[in-house]
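Q: I'm writing up a methods section and want to include an example of the input and output format. Could you take the sequence below and give the corresponding predicted structure tokens, formatted cleanly so I can copy it straight into the document?
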Amino acid sequence: MAHRSGRSGPKIIRSARRFINRKFGSVKQFLAIVFCVCVIIYCIHLILSESNRQIWDVRGDLNLSDSRCGVKCEPNQVAFYIRTGEGNKLGPTICLEGEVLISPELKNYGRGLNIVSVNDKTLEVTNIKTFDTYLEDTGLIRFLKKTVPQDHIVLIASFDESSGNLKEDGKQWLKLYGSGLADNVQFRDGLLMIGQKGLHEGNAVEFLSKRENGQDFANVVEKAGCFSVPMGSKRSLQVMLPKIIRGSNLMMGQVVPNCGVQESCGPRMFPVSVFTGHGNEKQPEICVSGKIVMSETVNDAGRGFNVVVVDHKTGRATMLTRVDTYTYDSTDLEIFLESLADGNIVIAVVADDGAKKLSYMAQELLNKLGSGLIQNLRFRDVWYFVGQKGIQGFTKMEMISYAGFEGEWPKALKAAFCVPTKIIGQAIVPDPDVIRNDARRNFCKKYDGYFEYCDPSHVDEFPKTVRVIDQAFSEHPIFSVPIVVVPGLNHNALVRSLETTLMQPGIQPNLVCVLWDEKFPEHGELAFLYGFSNFSLPSSTKYSEQMVKALRKIEDLHPDSEYVIVLEEELLLAPDFLHFMAQFLDVLNSDSSLLGVSAWNYNSYEVLAGNRHAVYRVEEFPGLGFLLSLKYLKSVLASSLDKCCNTRSWHGWDLGDQMKAEILIPDISRVFRQRYQGTDGDEDLIQQLFHKPRATNLEPSVKLEGLNNLTAELYEEYLNLALANSVSFPTSDLRQCLQYNKAFKPELPNESRHVFVVYYEQENPEDYELLRKLCHCFGLFSVKNHKPKNLHNGLLRFFYHGLNVFLVGSATEYYQHKPSLVTGLKKNLISPI
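A: Here is the clean output for your methods example:
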């Protein structure tokens, strides 16, 4: 028995070998397979341990009161839950390790990017911030660059809109936290991100929800999961920051006796010389107390701001830096200047270009050091400056050399002088040509989002009126007509409206009044900067309500005026807007059936190549920029203003319903309404009115034609005479358009002195089906379920590539002029548009 038992081991081995040979071919092949499986298992484990993160979509409610944000993680992992904002109504949520840090309930979120920064070692929350990157990203850059320490973690959730002014530098800093999607963030997209300072690009936890066509906002992104720290391989960001050299580390260059100053400096003074360099070939140079402290070979002088700080007691350089504000934002320059101690003397030289990314804040800091010229710095201008922390007023030691209009390199500046240890400032800027608009600066400091108006290159400009060239015209009554501006929500559009209003030759700023919603006092302050008066109106939820309130206010403001000009929101005025209005006062005075003039034409499209000299009478009031008889306006105020004008004016106010009165309009508009950004509920209408390419007159002082024929009786005489002597418009191509919806490109007659008429059949005066299709063929306003625009007793006239064209229906009184041999177009030609 013992012998048999001793042989059982080898027997088992032989059986196993036979099994392996039968199943795997040989023992060697089996061992090879086992080895490969082990390698695969090890690699999978390595990959999982390398990323060491698990993220999943959240389905349903999550118990955020749980100790780990409602998720279960390994002991060495960090638990999180993040939800981006829902539209502009419900704020985002960020939960870390069971603690809700940002949420709608806490009300500590805002538009843009909401960020929590966390210590990577202790997981202690160090900051909770919101940065409105719809308006600007300088705060975000400053935070990511300077506030958050190396290796710390950030958790980010977007809300509302975050891309408007998330520019190149802001996106670059998100990438330096591991983002791989920052460049893809667009208008109202949703962004969720967990990154770590220094993390290589693409290694962050991040998800981007894109706004699809037809959506107001992107869908919510809601994620929970676990991640480990560190989040991946990292890099030091010190190379991204400018080098600040201090004390004994300052390299000293060659000795230059007295820095080139001809005479020895007196007590409590020291010599300085500066050279701005030439173009991008010769680098700048700074000499302090007889030694070069910055040059091409000494302490890395070059493009942007070259700054040396001098101890006012010893006259020796103690600190210096260079910030390339052509390539990078000026946050580093701001922080450097903020770190100065009282009495520090600052020597700065701008070379090559330093204006491109120079912020308003950096300019303000330099102003406080004694600069009176820095706000005038433009592309490729060079500049030198010597100031002091604590100076009162402006330094004398400052100069700018301006680049040419086409960006030609400016003349280099070179100067040597003695600098006192206490610089006495002057109350006014030494250079009398320097312009500094402190009122505008204060406005820009107070209100965000005025990107053009508050751009550093414009912020010191003053509004200027334009004089009338024709002195005889300067006495015209139009210049005593009050102008009322009714702003909307777009404040940058209001700036453009006020600027084009002020640019009207002969304008009287004291007669311009901005009537603003009481919720937006900045509109009143902006009006003041342009020299316009302003009054607040009770707040409204709709712009049409605000317009009615403004029209009622006009009676109180101008009880003795005969006419008033009203400018609605987001308008740009043509150069001849006032001159255009001036030409109608005599006509309006002589015809009570005319209520006023609108400067906007529904049918003023580029495709028509219209006639800037032509004017028409129409039944519908298009509003936008208009002149009205105050006498009539007061009568409407007493009866039906709320009824006639309770919609946006472009729907066509029916101001003449009681009196059968009409409005005068130009063939080519004298105002341009900027693209409509709201939701009107009728996309086809908005597309036709504001998104289809429009024609607006750009020539000054255009003389209008046919003004003597605009009174009611004479206008009818003109129309009937024109029709009696008219020519039929070529209809072969027109029939192709009507019947087969083919592109309409007719061969037009060379003769343009006649009126060309298209006669068409109607079932009744309200039958516009065929007329609407004719409008579509000619490129006029044509929207389903909307009446064609610019009708006068059923007749529609316009100017088409040099031809005066009338569209005349069989239900109008003008159809009697149709020649017997001419057949009116019939409705059976119509095909679907």
